[in-house]
């Protein structure tokens, strides 16, 4: 049974899409059949994997049941990793009514229990904002992974997202746990990075991953070439960061229902 993880942050520029692309790639390398779902209208996860954006979003059809995931997902250059691409249009036509409809639970069940092409993980790359698409991700997800940039006001964006998670839990009457907090854009020589990391770990000692994602321009270069870092420069600092993060994610123990044991 697949595990569905939303990668979300209310703040932009925190390394959310970079984390989605590279974590998905290393999970696939580790033998976990993975689907990366690009829910962001900017379509950066799509282009970051070298995939052309479709003219129309597949999400309405998936939620209505007129389209199957196998019809719209695209294989990537990483064996075992597929992508459900986003359209590059400014808005994806997903409404609040669609998010609250029965199509969400059917799509969630289809991803979790795919028989013909079973998935191990589905990663949802969310837009950096509140709205129907982020709500959709929280409705679908078993857990939420949150990138936290090591800068001032990092805790504010985190607090907003946690509030959104609590609302989703109340509406669905089920727990949506933290997959974990990932410290991103970490520069060892910058004091504020260490201060933010200490603060996050003090408030969330059990939920913060040990591995910080180092600030590495090679990560941006890789995305601009449409490649995950494991293909573009596997010996770079950014590659080692995501490799170690993936090891931590794989060490998490989960029950068959998709909740942390």
How would you describe this structure in keywords?
single chain, 261 residues, alpha/beta, Rossmann fold, seven-stranded mixed beta sheet, 12 helices, globular
The geometry reads as globular
How do the strands of the widest beta sheet line up side by side?
3-4-2-5-1-6-7
Beta-strand content bin: 5-15%
Figure out the total of helices.
Answer: 12
Tally of structural domains: 1
Q: What's the quaternary structure here?
A: single chain
Spans of at least 5 consecutive residues with low confidence: 255-261
For the residues shown, what is the average pLDDT?
90
Largest sheet: 7 strands, mixed
Order of helices and strands: EHEHHHEEHHEHEHEHHHH
The CATH architecture is: 3-Layer(aba) Sandwich
Q: Any idea what the CATH superfamily is called?
A: P-loop containing nucleotide triphosphate hydrolases
Bin the helical content: 40-55%
Radius of gyration: 17 Å
CATH topology: Rossmann fold
Cα distance, first to last residue? 15 Å
Supply the CATH class: Alpha Beta
Structural class by sheet pairing and helices: alpha/beta
Description:
Mean pLDDT is 90; it is low at 255-261. The chain has twelve helices and seven strands. It is of the alpha/beta class. It is globular, with a radius of gyration of 17 Å. The longest helix is centred in the middle third of the chain and has 19 residues, at 154-172. 43% of the residues lie in helices and 13% in strands. The chain has a single domain (3-251), classed as Rossmann fold (3-Layer(aba) Sandwich). The protein starts with a strand and ends in a 10-residue tail after the last helix.
């Amino acid at each position: 049974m697949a595990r569905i993880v939303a990668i979300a942050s209310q703040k932009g520029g925190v390394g959310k899409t970079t984390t989605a692309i590279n974590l998905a790639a290393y999970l696939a390398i580790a033998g976990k059949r993975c689907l990366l779902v690009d829910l962001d209208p900017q379509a950066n996860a799509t282009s970051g994997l070298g995939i052309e954006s479709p003219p129309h979003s597949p999400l309405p059809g998936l939620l209505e049941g007129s389209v199957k995931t196998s019809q719209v997902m695209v294989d990537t250059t990483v064996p075992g990793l597929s992508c459900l691409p986003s359209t590059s249009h400014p808005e994806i036509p997903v409404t609040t009514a669609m998010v609250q409809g029965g199509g969400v639970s059917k799509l969630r069940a289809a991803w979790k229990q795919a028989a013909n092409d079973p998935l191990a993980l589905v990663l949802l790359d969310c837009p950096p904002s509140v709205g129907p698409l982020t709500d959709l991700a929280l409705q679908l997800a078993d857990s939420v992974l949150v990138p936290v940039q090591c800068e001032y006001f990092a805790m504010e964006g985190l607090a907003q997202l946690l509030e959104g998670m609590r609302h989703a839990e109340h509406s669905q009457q089920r727990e949506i746990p933290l997959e974990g907090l990932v410290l991103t854009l970490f520069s060892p020589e910058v004091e504020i990075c260490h201060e933010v990391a200490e603060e996050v770990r003090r408030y969330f000692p059990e939920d913060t991953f040990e591995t910080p994602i180092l600030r590495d321009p090679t990560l941006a270069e890789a995305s601009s070439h449409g490649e995950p870092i494991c293909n573009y420069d596997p010996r770079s600092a950014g590659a080692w960061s995501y490799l170690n993060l993936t090891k931590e994610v794989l060490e998490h123990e989960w029950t068959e229902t998709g909740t942390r044991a």
